[in-house]
């Protein structure tokens, strides 16, 4: 297994909530054991949910990715826990016994920040224009009736 | 003939002939045991189902397209050295901003799945035919050849130019502001006239009152 592991990562989340049905969270990381790039099988979990870890041979990176529905996609920091073979077996065993899995040692934790997706302006600009126009009309009508009275 | 004319046939009890109840039970147990212990030498090799989905409501030039690749192993053994390659997005037309188009999965256990997400951005607009990605994998540990499979095809999609998307969906704040400025004269001029004459009239009225 890996001794003195070091993880370096880059992450990406989609930021548009208007044309996408799901928000994608992607994190690419490199693992080095004792200063050498490693090629061991890894397993990842975020929020208790297991993730598929794939490898890119071209860039020698591991990639984890998952999707959330745009409406439900929470913003903020996501902790992706990365385990090796032994670590993951220990996690599964702890889950079967109903124990806490945070005690298992990870190879590393990758933090992914999602600032939230843009789902359109708070008030539709047409609606704002209608409200302003209505306000002006209201003022005009009430002043006029005051004058006529 | 004894038994008052009734012919006595051998009774179906445990103590006569080769096909007795006891023997049947033993034969059945033997057969079950034999089947159980021959085990999974004949287990089906791994077979992967591969789907490719585009998760977009609109495809806009210069904005993200999210593609989800799912692999599901319906065979009885684990698929090994699964290599997924999507060569349908040329680098001149698309820019990869998240994930990788060529990835390897070491092992997909039987009955389990693996998903991978890639985010790309088109640099051109027009009609684009989203075709299949390829997967190659070893269906079992001792397999001589790798199997090649194709994913599902999402089909043709229209990538709209950014101007069209902007025209439909942006809040057009500048346009509304210029509209307000242009509609000001017809509202503000009469109001100003009325207000000035009203305040003059009120001033005169209070002057008269004071007198």
TrEMBL record, chain A:
<keyword id="KW-1133">Transmembrane helix</keyword>
<dbReference type="GO" id="GO:0005789">
    <property type="term" value="C:endoplasmic reticulum membrane"/>
</dbReference>
<feature type="transmembrane region" description="Helical">
    <location>
        <begin position="122"/>
        <end position="141"/>
    </location>
</feature>
<dbReference type="InterPro" id="IPR008855">
    <property type="entry name" value="TRAP-delta"/>
</dbReference>
<keyword id="KW-0812">Transmembrane</keyword>
<dbReference type="Pfam" id="PF05404">
    <property type="entry name" value="TRAP-delta"/>
</dbReference>
<comment type="subunit">
    <text>Heterotetramer of TRAP-alpha, TRAP-beta, TRAP-delta and TRAP-gamma.</text>
</comment>
<keyword id="KW-0732">Signal</keyword>
<comment type="function">
    <text>TRAP proteins are part of a complex whose function is to bind calcium to the ER membrane and thereby regulate the retention of ER resident proteins.</text>
</comment>
<keyword id="KW-0472">Membrane</keyword>
<keyword id="KW-0832">Ubl conjugation</keyword>
<comment type="similarity">
    <text>Belongs to the TRAP-delta family.</text>
</comment>
<keyword id="KW-0256">Endoplasmic reticulum</keyword>
<protein>
    <recommendedName>
        <fullName>Translocon-associated protein subunit delta</fullName>
    </recommendedName>
</protein>
<dbReference type="GO" id="GO:0012505">
    <property type="term" value="C:endomembrane system"/>
</dbReference>
<keyword id="KW-1017">Isopeptide bond</keyword>
<keyword id="KW-1015">Disulfide bond</keyword>
